[in-house]
């Protein structure tokens, strides 16, 4: 929808006439999937609050929006798409913005392909409604097993704890795979200190059932009773309908549009069905995040209507927090991991530095740990990760800016970041961390 | 002291032998002057908490520290300084780090040159002690007049309000002179909403006295009774002892060291007695801030001992907050003002954008206003100012990073800033603000 609206805006400027039809198999448009865990936690009153623009608002803007319509095939040379109802719809330009539905493992599914009662993913607004209902129906002392410890897994664990449930988090990895081990350990500690039963290296093997309803979870090495199971193991591009069209898809089904959103003549793509280009190592990576999707859609819409806006890649920034049961950590990262850097042939030097979010004598001062990595030869900043108290997380933005500009660890150490006692130490902790790495190059 | 310690560290690496003598006319070393308003507010238990390193700690590190020793003259060719007691002390290298004492206007002073009882500046740890005592002695319903509405003025107003006093703020300007008018208006509104009597355009003409003690303040256009008067109208480099040495001083008495801290053969300078170079327009400006002083000192100390660290200028970043009586605003700026840009021959385009510090549906969402200015022809980002709720202020760092790297307003709009609902909107408000300016260039 971001692409559609930008296209209309740009068309007014360029004088083009556009008739935009939007087909969506879902029941809602333009909602914040990222907000669903906070709705589950009780921070958000209802699903409507998560809707940025209603279907009516889109239609009022002149967009022919058709909900509940699933496209199952595309004929690119014939310039038509076919819906599940068999309708063929023609186009001059096709925009693929089908997103990435949550992956649902076989063990979660009944023979008919639907999930067992008490089991669900956390992706669509309907998923959110289902979870809010499940939480409301669950009795005191109910236990929630969260499968997956990525951003969504941690956010759902927070939601369940804040609703008073017992929580187990199972992860195949060491937890928070987007962080270096020493940083993910800090998040793990916060989870455990909040009362989460955290099981690392656990691959789920199956469910116990009470009739149609989940009653327990088994993994290699253990099991536990469970009233609810939240599955948060990732998402996958919804591009099956493009198989056989000749469009290049990655092994995982993702598209790789150019900076203007083009994937072929008259075919465009944006959002979670796409990979994005990471500037630092020029790698294509799958990062289905709302901020990339919004930017990408805007560049696409503008370009399609004759403008020149471009999505010039990203620096692999992301953020979340874990806040429940007396624990509060902000979690952020930008740039490469150590493994990324090594794979790119760089010579990474990395250190974790501990410091404070504010001057030590201030009540606002919270501990923060900052991981900084730079390339030994070029001194280029390669990556930064942050785990810490209030005010820690968005510090990542200054590092993301240095990465965007291909700056060095010295730039990060010496640039002019804002200092006053409620906000930072005289050398911001980010700069202390950068300086320590700079001294070791 | 930052220079002294870095010099010792570097000397260990370069194999130089350094004997460092530090002369200071004051009674304390290495304290956070920035923390004094928060001590006055009651956030900090005692002045000792503001001391980063005690005199003993400096001496233990091998520095010959002599407190209560004022240097009154320097002979650069003879390489000696002379103290107020008439002692001549020789040097091989002279480091001038004398700082900038608070300006005290004539109307505040008795004939003997000391301030009337109840009147004081807010600069040294001794000033802090005096203010904490004054606040403790002042009765219920006491009224504090703050003269000056810069950072210190606003912070002292917060402190006095939080201690339960009535507060008047008098300023010669429109308030918060480091902000554009439309942004300073937002701070003024917060002050007034917190119950401050704010008088803009007021030049103090004199005091009413009750014996030796202040009882009222007069300005052109008004007067009011006052129990205490805090003077926060600025600071001035303590360089009088250098007059006549041939060292170049600005009209205001500031030094202009090179990036390594050199001002002449065997003479160095750092900190608040210096101007700093602003990268964007290559202007020398007087910005007596702790973060510059710390960086500057480190570069100087390293260079003096054979290293090569350099202070490569700043981008004019600063931050504070006003938090009292139900009001809470974070206040930050970086880069040029509109007047700076025009003076530099640029063609500035600027806009204020209102947005939110977090996704609108989150309890963390607070209003924020962001002023962004760019150059019409080059699209270069020139300045950003922020006034808003919790999490607003340190957003300035991402803008400061773009300025450091001479980036464009498009860089700020499209770079990869961190998004999750508790922290930002999908386009961070900083990027919405940048985009709106980009669209108008």
TrEMBL record, chains A, B:
Keyword list, A-Z: FAD, Flavoprotein, Oxidoreductase, Redox-active center
One term of GO molecular function: oxidoreductase activity
Keyword Oxidoreductase on entry: yes
InterPro entries with a match to the protein in the record: FAD-bd_OxRdtase, FAD/NAD-bd_sf, FAD/NAD-binding_dom, FAD/NAD-linked_Rdtase_dimer_sf, Pyr_nucl-diS_OxRdtase_dimer
Stored Pfam families: Pyr_redox_2, Pyr_redox_dim
Domain of life: Bacteria
Domain FAD/NAD(P)-binding: from-to ranges: 3-279
Signal peptide: none
Cofactor dependence: FAD
Keyword Flavoprotein tagged: yes
Ranges of residues in domain Pyridine nucleotide-disulphide oxidoreductase dimerisation: 329-427
Family to which this protein belongs: Belongs to the class-III pyridine nucleotide-disulfide oxidoreductase family.
Protein name: CoA-disulfide reductase
Protein's organism: Nocardioides ganghwensis
């Amino acid at each position: 929808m971001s692409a559609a609206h930008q296209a209309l805006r740009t068309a007014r400027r360029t004088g083009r006439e556009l008739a935009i039809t939007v087909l969506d198999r879902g029941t809602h448009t333009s909602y914040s999937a990222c907000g669903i865990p906070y709705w589950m936690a009780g921070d958000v009153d209802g699903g409507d609050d998560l809707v940025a623009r209603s279907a009516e608002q889109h239609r009022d803007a002149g967009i022919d929006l058709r909900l509940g319509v699933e496209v199952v095939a595309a004929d690119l040379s014939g310039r038509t798409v076919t819906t599940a109802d068999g309708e063929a719809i023609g186009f001059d330009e096709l925009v693929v913005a089908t997103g990435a539905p949550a992956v649902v493992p076989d063990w979660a599914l009944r023979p008919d392909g639907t999930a067992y009662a008490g089991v669900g993913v956390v992706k669509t607004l309907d998923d959110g409604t289902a979870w809010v209902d499940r939480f409301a129906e669950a009795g005191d002392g109910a236990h929630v097993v969260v499968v997956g410890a990525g951003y969504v897994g941690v956010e759902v664990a927070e939601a369940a704890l804040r609703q008073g449930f017992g929580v187990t988090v199972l992860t195949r990895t060491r937890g928070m795979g987007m962080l270096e081990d020493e940083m993910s350990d800090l998040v793990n500690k916060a989870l455990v200190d909040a009362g989460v039963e955290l099981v690392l290296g656990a691959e789920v093997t199956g469910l116990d059932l009470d009739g149609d309803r989940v009653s327990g979870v088994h993994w290699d090495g253990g099991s536990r009773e469970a009233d609810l199971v939240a599955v948060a193991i990732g998402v996958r591009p919804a591009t099956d309908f493009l198989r056989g069209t000749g469009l290049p898809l990655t092994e995982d089904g993702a598209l790789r549009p150019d900076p203007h959103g083009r994937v072929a003549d008259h075919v465009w793509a944006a959002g979670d069905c796409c990979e994005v280009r990471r500037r630092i190592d020029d790698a294509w990576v799958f990062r289905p995040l709302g901020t990339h999707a919004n930017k990408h859609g805007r560049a696409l819409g503008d370009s399609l209507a004759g403008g020149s806006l471009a999505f010039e890649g990203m620096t692999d920034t992301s953020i979340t927090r874990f806040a429940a049961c007396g624990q509060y950590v902000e979690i952020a990262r930008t740039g490469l991991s150590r493994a990324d850097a090594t794979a790119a042939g760089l010579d990474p030097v990395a250190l974790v530095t501990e410091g404070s979010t504010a001057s030590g004598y201030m009540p606002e001062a919270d501990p923060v740990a900052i991981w900084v990595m730079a390339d030994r030869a070029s001194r280029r900043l390669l990556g930064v990760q942050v785990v810490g108290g209030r005010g820690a997380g968005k510090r990542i933005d200054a590092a993301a800016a240095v990465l965007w500009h291909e700056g060095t660890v010295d730039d990060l150490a010496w640039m002019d970041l804002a200092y006053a006692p409620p906000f930072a130490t005289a050398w911001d902790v980010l700069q202390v961390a950068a300086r320590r790495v700079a001294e070791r190059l």
